[in-house]
Amino acid sequence: MEASVSERTGAPAGRRVRIARLATAFASAMAIAGCNAVGPDYLKPNAIVPVAYKEIKGWKLATPREDYPKGQWWRIYHDAELNRLEETVAVSNQSVKSDEANYRAALAMIAEARAGLFPTVGFNPSITRQSSQPPTEVQAQISGSWTLDIWGKVRRLIEENGAAAQVSKADLDNLTLSEQSALALAYVQVREADELHDLFLDTVKEYQRSLDITKNQYDAGTTAKSDVITAQAQLLAAQASAINTDVARKQNEHAIAVLMGKPPAEVSVSHRHLPNSVPHPPVKLPSTLLERRPDIAAAERTMKEENAAIGVAVAAYYPDFTLSGAFGYFGDPFIRQLDIVNPAWSYGLSIAQTLFDGGLTAAEVQAAKATYASSVATYRQTVLTAFQQVEDQLAAILVYDRELKVEIETVKIAKEAVAIALNEYRAGTQNFTTVVTAEATALVDEETLLSTKASRLTADVSLIVALGGGWDESKLPQVAADGPPDAAPPTP
Fold first, then answer.
1. Which of 200, 233, 282, 481 could anchor a disulfide with 242, C-beta 3.0 to 4.6 Å?
2. Integer distance in angstroms from the first to the last C-alpha of the chain?
3. β-strand 120-123 against 2-9: which pairing, if any?
4. What is the pLDDT of residues 407-441, one digit of tens each?
């Protein structure tokens, strides 16, 4: 149902009075529009947060002043090449660029919603030539209308879109962190392949020495031809393994290039080994995790977005009040003295209210409430998953640290066993099978040690990412109903 009250005149009588009334009506409308918006105000639901991490035993908690690279978390490893590669991700990665464009679109949606707080004004001049008198008529009119935000529907929509923009920014930061961590993990795989390649090359040298010994023994008639063949087969297998490491290296190098937003042909990673020691990432109290992970921030802002959507839906129960007005000129443009009846103006108020919609509004409100409830559960699950990821990596690092100590001793003993077996074989007191077994065991032990080193570094990177990579909520844009969204601070 729509009702309207309007007045239109072309005479000057009472014009000032009517203009005063119009100004009063607009001022009253502004006061009414400042009332509280319908729908629930947002209150952040509680999440399940532990007092302490389960796997933190033996781990020194970080202090607020501890030196830790904010945002550029990879600098903790003091690797100049990794620094160079990582800095390109936020600039050139195409997935990040896509999310960045989505974020800019979300900011535009805030401005679009905020436009509903203001009147719309139009200017529609026309000139008509006709055979009757007067032959030419001009109409020039400025008109405007303003749907008052009495119930706060527009303000709730701004709140909804503002939260959506914050979700988009958090998603952008989360994707950037994910792509940066993917590059770091690929970098670890490249380093592991390099060290494994060198391990096999060293093994080839050792196997070549064993082959030389078997040939000397065979030439002296103290060993069988089968020992020589076995040594040759062992040597060739090690050479093949060394060649095979190039597959993992090249594929991970290609992945690094794509993560940097470049074709593989433009990126090369130097040949280096894994670091022998890796620092423990600083771990703070569990309660700080809620402000340091962009995915948690995105889930929390989604709740605010869905909560505001309830207010938008509830506002449909209330009528719309629209003020309209116009001022213009009508008549012959060639009249030397404009007649006082030519100027004309009008203003009016219309009210629109839905009387029956078959339960549509009620269904939309219930749907909005259910969507909000779903977002609350998603938020709490996101928090729980975040704590699980931190606990997983804490446990992995502590276990790998203990495992590395044992494996270093295992490799040392295995190498001693190889040296003893070779000496005994050369002296004729041991068969070549013992040598082969000792060498194979030593190689497996060294491969295991290398794999554990890589896993330890991988867990380290994963823990930094699980802790948020130095991110915090201050990077989200601040959105107000009466001003543009503040730009998020640049990542340092």
1. 200
2. 56
3. unpaired
4. 999 999 999 999 999 999 988 888 999 999 999 99
Distance CA 158, CA 392 (A): 40
- pTM for the model: 0.85
Which domains does the chain show, CATH number per domain? 37-118+149-318+362-475 (1.20.1600.10)
- Sorting pLDDT into bands at 50, 70 and 90, what band is 4? low
Q: Which amino acid is at 218?
A: Y
Q: Residues 293, 295, 297, 299: is their CA dihedral positive or negative?
A: negative
DSSP H helices in 315-359: none
Nearest CA to 197 among 265, 135, 246, 143? 246
Q: How many residues does the chain have?
A: 492
With H, G, I as helix, E, B as strand and everything else as coil, classify residue 39: coil
Residue holding tokens 């605010």? 304
> What is the crossing angle of helices 153-219 and 94-114, to 10°?
170
The model's pLDDT over 288-325, given as tens digits with 9 standing for 90+, comes to 899 899 999 999 999 999 999 999 999 999 998 888 88
Question: What is the residue type of 11?
Answer: A
The separation between CA 398 and the C-alpha centre of its own chain, rounded to angstroms, equals: 28
Query: Which residue, chain included where needed, has tokens 């032990």?
Result: 445
Nearest to 467 by CA among 392, 369, 356, 375: 392
Q: Which two tokens stand for residue 250?
A: 């090249």
